[in-house]
């Protein structure tokens, strides 16, 4: 059975609206689908549940964790297997990739979120988010230029 992206988006949107209406779930402003924030909340929720600590989690994650990261990972894995596109690839240096990924998440959390969350916050009129978005854009341009000059 194939589901078009439009149908999947409509089902997901209506499901989210129904869940919000029935269970009174209201995510914090500008939470969006922030992989860095949802990962932080998932890890902090697990640590709080196991050790009884009080690490910060967003209000929407207090009772039960937001499983966006797990859903994206599982959904991508299933989609890749269904379409026979799943291949394990060896990178040049997996340790460097891991460290860079951890740094991206750390800096996203220090800055206040991922590009999607920064865009949503900018739409709400947050000037700091706009400055952050411009800085992120400039950083990508500078890093791309350095990378292209080094590898050209």
UniProtKB/TrEMBL annotation:
Record flagged with keyword Membrane: yes
Instruction: Kindly state which keywords UniProt assigns to this record, in alphabetical order.
Output: Membrane, Transmembrane, Transmembrane helix
Q: Where are the transmembrane segments?
A: 63-82, 94-112, 127-148
Q: Is Membrane one of the keywords?
A: yes
Q: Which domain of life is it from?
A: Archaea
List the protein's name: Uncharacterized protein
